[in-house]
Amino acid sequence: MMNARIRELAQTLWDYHHVNHTLRKADVILVLCSHDTRVAERGAQLFLEGWAPLLMFSGGLGVITRSMWTEPEADLFARIAVEMGVPAEHILIENQSANTGQNVLFTRQLLAEKGLDPETFIVVQKPYMERRSYATFRKVWPEKSVIVTSPQDAFEVYLSRYTNPELTPDDVISIMVGDLQRIRLYPERGFQIPQPIPDDVWAAYEELVKAGYDRHLASA
User: Fold this and answer.
1) pLDDT per residue over 66-92, tens digit each?
2) How many helices, marked H, and strands, marked E, lie in the chain?
3) What is the pTM of this model?
4) CA 126 to CA 139: how far, in whole Å?
């Protein structure tokens, strides 16, 4: 069960996962889909505010969502955007990818098929996947300019307002721990560019793993 110490450690990881990019106008808003539908709302909000003329959703069914849904993540997220007022003709859907690297790669392929070659992207992701999304995009598509954003919540607010009832706050922390581990492992596997991990962040990770938040770790 989460206690004050666990919350303190999780806050350390939460802060590290944020890249704190400043928004600027782009050619495409690319929403990397997942189990968190608030990411869809953030992407739609940015489009409606005029940050880019094209809104893309990328995601099939991943490790977590394939046990929750039968509909691809991107289709569900796009429907949320349309319900919020985004015109369907300004939306592109990539609904085959199953991980972050495929999100970027399959998006690149779809845009090429459409004869589109955008230069600048706003990537929208869960708050605790900002850094890994940035590192993955820069590895898979280094020629393009990218900034990353997410739902604008403090950690405690995010946990209290989290939209998927099938995942508890402890589940979210476990997923966040797994994402930090991947930031360390994946550059050597060719999946991401390296990101420095401060000692205090890695110490928080190790303490959380010892406390049992290890359910979403990748195989070393």
Assistant:
1) 667 778 999 999 999 999 999 999 999
2) 8, 5
3) 0.92
4) 19
